[in-house]
């Protein structure tokens, strides 16, 4: 069970230096604006107000998505008697393995962590790993060499993780590996924010951390994965449902 406001609390925890810098910068700018005897003080005040507004909007959007939507219930997944092998792949912060165990109680579930501090350098991931160690049974892997034989997986979940693979070449290899381990008729579920207008309105410059939809579609196609559906959870997150071509 997720706690109330857990999503927003995690964002503040994992990104606290950015929020602390924003608060400090706004405080300094307000002091300057109050003491500055110039018409430009109103311009500075407007910039500060806009920055504060952007932070508040981002936190409200995060609350809506992470604390008030069915996102973490993984509603696009349904238990199926034919589902024998489920793979959950994360980037060092796993919020879905327990839900998968509940949804697929009879399946064998592999939990893989592709986090590599040399490749995936986001400071927020390091803080998340300290606060929430990987779930029991989580195995460290390389994103471009998945430890499962060909056609073995019925369901593969990659939840808010694939965007941490910043290099396009590594990301393409990762999706080719997903194609390799997926059985014919199996499905891959990739859940991500997109670099699009709704996320830009919600997260302003933070949207640059996400990949555009065209980049995802290109990686899927090059790996031989067909996009069967795109499921939206609020306008901010897409779950791509993929199958072998």
Kindly list the characteristics that best describe this protein.
7-stranded mixed beta sheet, about 45% helix, alpha/beta, Rossmann fold, about 240 residues
Textual characterization of the structure:
The chain has helices spanning 6-14, 16-35, 40-68, 97-103, 123-131, 168-181, 197-203, 213-222, and strands at residues 85-90, 108-113, 138-140, 153-159, 182-193, 225-233, 237-244. With 245 residues, it is α/β, with parallel strands linked by helices. The protein has a seven-stranded mixed beta sheet, sandwiched between helices. Strand 1 (85-90), helix 4 and strand 2 (108-113) form a beta-alpha-beta unit. Helix 2 (16-35) packs antiparallel against helix 3. The longest helix is centred in the first third of the chain and has 29 residues, at 40-68.
